[in-house]
């Protein structure tokens, strides 16, 4: 085939794919609404078993062969579609050699956070509603709308007769919001069905936002090469066997609240930003390529400061350099003493705090936990430290060839320059894929489709309709690009 005919063929396929999405988008919304209407709260177990079956149904209706994989926690749903698999009409094409067909594994999760305060929702959390161009429901962006986009991309490719010589696999877990125990169990079994994967593709989290000339931040197409890790802990301290009168005992008898604040503050470096814990930074590794990537991110820190009504940042260092290349410590909550109305002159005997540490590539969450625990107990022997959860950091080299088809797809669909980040500021279980021997060196890319203000984990979570539809188009183009490059 000559070059002109090849170009014409690509254009024709692109047009057919675009038309298929346009024609079927109402069906895709209806299927998404089915997923969103089904509660699937992994922290409580509400609706989880029914939700897993529903995910299977939605994936199968999109042309994938899907099924549940049981774990000791919640089911993992696995689905695939390969070249030559039978289509909806039952007419299959001749399959090419599986060793020659590239394979992309799309990861997502069907569990969601609890709704929280029901009165804070403008419409019920599990009654999806479209308002002002957005789909409002718990899980709309995190993560049902994003993982469903991959399945609907397969459906659109089949409808357009444009499914390439590639294999598409989906792995949708049911415990991301509560520690990914089921996913880890599945991956630790070294599943044979993942042995041929060439790219792990994660659509989760919000797109990066950039401030325009008007100072308003809006989402842009985003490609990330990993994610920060997280360690969550609880610290409890008892200094006496009962609360006491602060006048009769205050001074010589320690207050648990005072003492806990002092001990927590000891983990802060003198500059108020760094973390002064021996061994905390062991293994940290940020490459020059990562730093160059960060330096190219538009500086919209002033717009962020004004949007959040923050009087000043903790450091004068560049915003994204601080956010994406260094670990952080956050006291998520403090409790102790009297919390009622008015005053009570009490000397608290107990106090507690919840903290998280965001970790950069090559930090080991377990090693960080041991370092933090040793630091706290050395300064206060009566303190108790409990680990609540971890996700390891994960990083793919920024020069991976697999990034190019993703960049091209994002640029073509969104019509904008792609912003690239070395890591997602938040945390994902993506690093667990590296525990599969066959995936140890496979690129893992994070490509969020949700709007930057999606409100995941908050009341009125929402996914912009254009983000949902463009997510479908992006996944479809990535699949086609991988097939062409084989």
UniProtKB/TrEMBL annotation:
Domain Peptidase M20 dimerisation: start-end pairs: 225-382
GO biological process terms held by the UniProt record: proteolysis
Claim: Ribonucleoprotein is one of the keywords in the record: no
Pfam families linked to this entry: M20_dimer, Peptidase_M20
This protein's UniProt keywords: Hydrolase, Metal-binding, Protease
Xref: InterPro entries: Cyt/Met_Dipeptidase, Peptidase_M20, Peptidase_M20_dimer
Record keyword Cytoplasm present: no
A molecular-function term among this protein's GO annotations: metal ion binding
PANTHER family: BETA-ALA-HIS DIPEPTIDASE (PTHR43270), DI- AND TRIPEPTIDASE DUG2-RELATED (PTHR43270:SF8)
Protein name according to UniProt: M20/M25/M40 family metallo-hydrolase
